[in-house]
Amino acid sequence: MKASWIAVDWGTTNFRAFLMSDEGECLDKIQQAKGLLSVKQEQFPQVFDELISRWSKTYGHLPVIMAGMVGSQQGWREVPYVHAPASANDLANHIHSVDLLSGNKAKIVSGVCCINDFGNPEVMRGEEIQLIGLSEIIKGDFHAILFGTHSKNAYWHNGKIESYSTVMTGELYSILVNHSILGKSLPEQKFNKDTFIKGVEIGAKYPLNHVLFSARTFKLYDEIHNSNIHAYISGLLIGHEFTISNRLNKLYLVGSQNLASNYALALEHFNIEFDVIDGDECFLKGMTKIYSKGEINEY
């Protein structure tokens, strides 16, 4: 297949570029720990040129479409959010461009904002592409959890991102096990399914800030082995995440297969039907959908 365009996921800590065919096949990939935090504002064109230089030498200057935090205030250019409900067409109609060293322009897809079920404002950059990609796979309404540092519980309805809410599951886990008394003076940690499920049940039943300290007290009372504390904390957080109501009969977990395992155990415990869909597959299908709208071919 012929290389025709480049899809880029440029986040806070990582840069990922995918060499794409017109048919939406990924022909090659470049990944570097060169996220926005390591790039000065005026250096984006040069850094981008360096990161994809081997493709430029081989294929010339291909059309480029980018998504993620590259369109944030800290990114290459701030791209305003599109308000939900938002479709692929809505995002394609709000693409912004930046100048490349080659003289061509790269396109940046906007993120999506909404007011969640609690009346609070929400924002996402990058996950909207995965949701569009998932819609290409599911072909109908769905409820998805895009798990990670900041998990997104999202609803797709009538061809649009309808609403979503953010749960800081991944970041809270990191803070609790690395920077709180709950994670202090622990031996090497081992995953224990029963301990994890104990956490899931408690986290789903009670307010989170009322039960977090039990990770310490259960250890002191020898009800949880001190090598299983991380598993228990993970269970508390994931169980709490499931207190967000599921309007549909099935959940889709979007992310890597490895990271999905704990979510899968919790869903199986609650007898909730689910499928795990690869996050990169969703991202590339979503970017291909945006690319197919033709907006990024206008150089």
From TrEMBL:
Transmembrane regions listed in the UniProt entry: none
SUPFAM superfamilies: Actin-like ATPase domain
Gene Ontology MF terms: 2-dehydro-3-deoxygalactonokinase activity
Pfam families attached to this UniProt entry: DGOK
Alphabetical UniProt keywords: Kinase, Transferase
Record CDD domains: ASKHA_NBD_KDGal-kinase (cd24012)
GO biological process: D-galactonate catabolic process
InterPro entries the UniProt entry points to: ATPase_NBD (IPR043129), DGOK (IPR007729), DGOK_C (IPR042257), DGOK_N (IPR042258)
Keyword Transport: no
Name by which UniProt lists this protein: 2-dehydro-3-deoxygalactonokinase
Organism of this sequence: Photobacterium chitinilyticum
